[in-house]
Amino acid sequence: MAKHFQEGSGKIVLGALAPHPPHLVYAENPPQNEPRAECGWETLRWGYEALRNNLLKLDYDVVVVLSPHWRTYVGTHVLGVERLKNISVDPVFPHLFRYHYDMTVDVGLSKAIVQEASADGLVMKLMENPDFRVDYGTIVSCHLTHPNWDKPIVALSSHAASAYFSHDVMQEEMIRLGKSTRRAIEKSGRRAVLLASNSLSHRHFTKEPPLPEDMSHEHIYHHGQYLWDMKMIQLMKEGRTDEVMAIMPDFTEQAVSETDSGALTWMLTAMGQPRIPAKVHAYGTVIGTGNAIVEWNLEEAQKRPQDQSLKGAQP
Q1: Which of 12, 71, 217, 228 could covalently link to 209 via disulfide, CB atoms 3.0 to 4.6 Å apart?
Q2: What pLDDT shows up at residue 1?
Q3: Beta-strand relationship, 289-297 and 11-17
């Protein structure tokens, strides 16, 4: 039976920085993925396990994700097909990720986001091609947060504002998209979990060892990008979200970060830039890139009457 949503009662209950290295799915050996691994990247996989355990305690209806690997060049696109079933192959790591997906989409919320953002002057498009192949970034982040695929998703593309203009222009666009997403969720009656599907520092190795899961070869690409990652994570842990947003363009440029997609900016804005200490479940590297699994549990914070950190957050 379809769930009845009360208009105007929707809310974002949790947001997570949920990086998407296909290696993590490869190492878990789920039945959907063809390649088999022995082990690998346990710190990050255990971090995702902790995030999943927290999600099990929450009542939510939909997962909304923005991925760097669904890159569109004219505006932002949103999945608009109720069921999508196909195989997704990572173009860089086809020997690690050949994943058979079968997902449902909350088309009603997708349409609402398109409508709200269009009304705010953003260029938006509902993706209604039934043969569309979902990108691996969306799939990996969604699989690692809810591998049972028992919740519908809404997936948004990232556009090339940072490449064609600047990181500052990207930030401005994603702030507007985040506010539109929040309004759409609140009006829809859905209780939503948001995922920013990106790594932090993203300069990576160009060669891999003969055995991809050989952890003796795994380390950060260079110390400079590690320092940038630690700076951002410390700000998140201290609830200094305004400062995270303020240095985002510089971080994106200096750490060659996947935040150039705007996913983290979009998510933090949609959550109202909450000034609550984030819960960092894990930090680790994958082929030299820095990846953090970070949780902002708005539902938990709002249950603490003594917690004033959500007051004054930007809507």
Answers
A1: 217
A2: 37
A3: antiparallel
Radius of gyration of the chain (CA): 18
Task: Provide the pairing of β-strand 76-79 with 124-127.
Answer: parallel
Task: Catalogue all structural domains in the chain, each as residue range(s) with its CATH number.
Answer: 11-302 (3.40.830.10)
Q: Where are the beta strands (DSSP E) in 73-218?
A: 76-79, 83-89, 98-104, 124-127, 153-159, 191-196
The pLDDT of residue 231 is above 90: yes
> Distance between CA 117 and CA 123 in Å, rounded?
8
DSSP bridge pairs for 12:
192
Give the CA count within 13 Å in the CB-facing half-sphere of 161: 23
Interaxial angle between packed helices 263-270 and 167-188, expressed in degrees from 0 to 180 and rounded to the nearest 10: 40
Which H or E run contains 71?
A: strand 62-72
Q: Provide the residue count of the chain.
A: 315
Determine if the pTM surpasses 0.90.
yes
57 C-beta neighbours (distance < 10 Å), count: 9
Does residue 82 register a pLDDT over 60? Answer: yes
Q: What is the largest CA-CA distance in the chain?
A: 54
Neighbour tally for 259: CB within 10 Å:
30
Integer angstrom CA distances of residue 265 from 35, 254, 276: 33, 17, 16
25, 97 Cβ separation under 8 angstroms:
yes
pLDDT of residue 165 exceeding 90: no
Cα 203 from Cα 221, distance rounded (Å): 7
